[in-house]
């Protein structure tokens, strides 16, 4: 997998003087059918989240509030994205290691996932992930 396959997706944004609205539709704004939504919040300063890769799951991360950095790694290249707008999502393809760091105070990270939770889909150890890439 190439880190170039992981990219920022601009989501629809409807501007209104009463407040903006962004929506996400399956297979239209994100390149997969949505099966699960979860979010990270109240992350303590200096803490890191993620630190894993998925075998089959596709994912989009969105900074719903505040900001954070996402480091993606395919075993050969590493790229860092700074997310800080609710109308931008970072698409992460399968077999890409991800780490989320540098959370601002009050930040909320929403994750859109292509699969229901399945622990067997995870590589939680970086060395196991690197070994799988080489197979």
From TrEMBL:
SUPFAM superfamilies: RmlC-like cupins. Pfam families: FdtA. Residues 5-132 form the Sugar 3,4-ketoisomerase QdtA cupin domain. This is WxcM-like domain-containing protein. It comes from Brasilonema sennae CENA114. The lineage of its organism: Bacteria, Bacillati, Cyanobacteriota, Cyanophyceae, Nostocales.
